[in-house]
UniProtKB/TrEMBL annotation:
Family annotation (InterPro entries): Anth_synth/Amidotransfase (IPR050472), CarbamoylP_synth_ssu (IPR006274), CarbamoylP_synth_ssu_N (IPR002474), CarbP_synth_ssu_N_sf (IPR036480), Class_I_gatase-like (IPR029062), CPSase_GATase1 (IPR035686), GATASE (IPR017926)
Sequence similarity: Belongs to the CarA family.
Protein name per Swiss-Prot or TrEMBL: Carbamoyl phosphate synthase small chain
Annotated Carbamoyl-phosphate synthase small subunit N-terminal domain residues: 8-145
Enzyme class, first EC level, given as a word: ligase
Keyword presence, Nucleotide-binding: yes
Pathway per the UniProt entry: Amino-acid biosynthesis; L-arginine biosynthesis; carbamoyl phosphate from bicarbonate: step 1/1; Pyrimidine metabolism; UMP biosynthesis via de novo pathway; (S)-dihydroorotate from bicarbonate: step 1/3
Active site: C261, H345, E347
Amino acid sequence: MTYCKRGTEGLIYLEDGTLLRGCGFGAKGVRYGEVVFTTAMNGYPESMTDPSYRGQILIITHPLVGNYGVPNPIVRNGILQNFESEQIQIEGLVVTEETDPSKWNSSKSLHQWMAEQGIPGVSSVDTRLLVKKVRTLGSMMGVIASGEHGEDPRKYIEMRYDEIDFTKFTSPKSPIIHQNNSPDIIVLVDCGIKHGILEELYKTGFTIVRVPCKSSADEIMNYSPKGIVFGNGPGNPNILKDLVKNFSAVMEYKLPTLGICLGHQVATLALGGNVRKMKFGHRAINKPVTDISNNKCYISTHNHGYGVYKEDIPPDTQIWFVNPDDGVVEGLIHKRLPLITTQFHPEARPGPNDTTWVFQKFKKMVIKDEGN
């Protein structure tokens, strides 16, 4: 019998029938979602608040999680500096051992934070077994429970992850303006933007206007932007028909455009390419990407379960970055339009800063376009 320091039992169930019982922590309750894993050794406050994880139960492979607790939010220019959104986005958390914090800036424990926000967690389970299952069989639906037992967990799975438009939960309901030194405006189509990406865009000096994910081309162009960014976000890009349509309409204006993560996938679909569900995706802070224009390799942060492969790229585009491990296309450059995309997160929060220069490249595109 496992000793549970919180006095609560928990379980994690996979739809292939795997059922592991352990200790519950965080909030008591039951959640369902797609079960995925990250190999990141640090940065759990950022990962857990990343809107791209909405609808997913996250397994962290590092054995000890919670060592440095959770800090108080730091906000500058309306942008969070130490979280990726205002709330925990994951459906639940699975770890080998949940620990109490010991760090100077910790304001609460991982357990307290999750309890306050209604997110269940499970510890004292074999995360290696779970990750091997996901790697072998692919990402699958699952159920996590803390302090709730006795019922058939299968009954809680109401819908498939791929069928749900999660952007309606992560996109702002109305525009948000981040005033900057320059009056020139970059419109960010916000489907669940990470604040780390928002911070790097703000550093370019432009005023950033975040508009809801489903904003029309007319609504976007009403701001007379100098450039447009389609950012990251959760879920299946193939069901976001309106977003794809709006991207196509915006490209008619031939403004400098940057697509990141979901934005990369939407750009691919809008231009006539294909996006496929990956077996278990890329979720880590140490993934290599190779710039094929100069054969330089960078270490980058990833969080995506859908991908573009070489045979899927749209007409009139060329591959910019590729993952040398599995060949997934990690960036595109359009041959005729001022459009660049990255599948990875160039701001890398958490993670390395190898690719933050992508934002400066986009800034140069905007300045060059202004000069024409």
